[in-house]
Amino acid sequence: MKLRSLVYLAFALCLWVLGMACEDRDKGPEDRLLAQVFNRQLHLSDLESMFPEGANAEDSLIITQAFTNRWVREELLLYEAEKNVPKDLNIDKLVRDYRASLLRNNYEQVLVEQLLDSTVSKAELQAFYEDNKEQYELETPIMRCFFVKLKVPVKKQDSVIQFWTKPRKGNNLEKLKTYCKKYKATCELSDSTWFRIDQIAQAMPKGTISAENISSKREFRQTDGKYVYYFRLLELRNRKEIAPLGYIEGQARKFILHTRKIKLLEQKREELFELALKKGNLKMFPE
User: Fold this and answer.
1) On the CB side of 181, how many CA atoms lie within 13 Å of its CA?
2) Left if phi > 0, otherwise alpha if psi is -120 to 50, otherwise beta: which for 207?
3) In a 3-state reduction of DSSP, which class is residue 140?
4) pTM of the full structure
5) Over the stretch 242-286, which tens digit does the pLDDT of each residue have?
6) Is the peptide bond before 29 cis (omega within 30 degrees of 0)?
């Protein structure tokens, strides 16, 4: 569909809703006329859903005036648009096609919500990864790491150092997570989550870590007077290496579900075709 056709269609649909609502409704004898543009009229009852609950007289007047002013200008523009519709533009067909598209899309969404299995197993993710991992070459280095940013002065600093130094001892890592949550500290303490280096770097003083120096800064603690920063590199994947499954898992899951959705809708189309053929509701006339 040409861009000009889309513009006319969108404009016609938007103003048609408003114009038809204002033309076709039966008006009560006391329904006040607010404006008229050629043969189209705007009545007070057309605005009944516009007023919020509890609106006073002044608020209602402002809403009425604003809506009326907008309606008048849109109707004048619609009038001119109707006079200048290109001869090769079939508005009725465009509206029918657009309506059909909306109905199909809505029904497809209902089918997906009712019938699509949204569970993706680890085995499916792994199989997808093995079949497609060559497509996921890294454009920037990524890493797994532990990172904590604490505001100075650090409360219970000895405990923090103990938790940080030996995170695998007992439940020190969980204690550190609890500490960070309690004191609203910035932290990343999942050993399975992958980050771009710049995602962590932006929480530190500029230049602290970067793609160029990350290999030489595998673990450190530093302060800038306002915050204390703890950083430990767990694993690094460099640019041009294949991304690990954990990094592209979200993309893989979306692709698997999208493939399922396409298959489900194709299956439903075939079922409807076979049913219509069986009941005699479908006839095809070959040449």
Assistant:
1) 7
2) left
3) coil
4) 0.70
5) 999 999 999 999 999 999 999 999 999 999 999 999 999 988 888
6) no
